[in-house]
Specification:
Length: 186
């Protein structure tokens, strides 16, 4: 079992901390309420679910509230600012597993590859991974043109051309395996 390590959330030092296990807590502090002060106790914040089952919390400071995804807070506190053009990715595909060992910064493209890796599909995708593999296989036999494949799979000819040229789904090998991430963060 991992030891829980706590770090201050940048911008909220003295107010909130996040742990390497993905927990968030408010720290004890003196709070002004109407016409008196009291000391608030340390407490774990309750998570709420956003789209795609991602967990978030609301953080308060100076009478302002801001909403943060828990996975973003974990990486911000333990790794640092998100590099420009990168996203927070869940390595195992579970958006509720905000353990530091399951999070990384990566490109949006690699994040989408990971989505397919764990059996999820993009909401706008008209073809499954199996159909893409079948299109490639049929085209390589020379028996079907991209126009015929488009009609067979009810997509545009442009779509089948892009698949056979590997302009799309280039991360998908012909045996159905997914090419590993080559992304490096400097």
């Amino acid at each position: 079992m991992q030891n829980e390590i706590w770090k201050d959330i940048p911008g909220y030092e003295g107010y909130y901390q996040v742990s390497n296990l993905g927990n968030v807590k408010s720290l004890p502090r003196r709070v002004y309420r109407q016409d008196y002060y009291f000391v608030s106790k340390e407490k774990y914040l309750k998570f709420r679910k956003a789209t795609q089952d991602r967990l978030y919390v609301d953080l308060y400071k100076n009478k302002e509230v801001k909403r943060f995804y828990v996975h973003s807070l974990v990486l911000l506190a333990f790794i640092g600012e998100r590099p420009k053009g990168y996203s927070v990715c869940h390595i195992n595909g579970n958006n509720q597993d905000n353990n530091l060992s399951n999070l990384k910064y990566d490109t949006p493209r690699q994040n989408q590859i990971d989505v397919y890796r764990y059996g999820k599909t993009h909401g706008n995708s008209k073809l499954s991974v199996e159909q893409v593999l079948e299109i490639r296989k049929l085209h390589e036999t020379g028996e079907y043109t991209t126009r015929e494949l488009a009609k067979k799979f009810s997509v545009s000819q442009n779509c089948t051309q892009r698949i056979t040229r590997r302009d799309t789904f280039d991360w998908l090998n012909n045996d159905g395996t997914i090419r590993e991430s080559q992304t490096k963060i400097s």
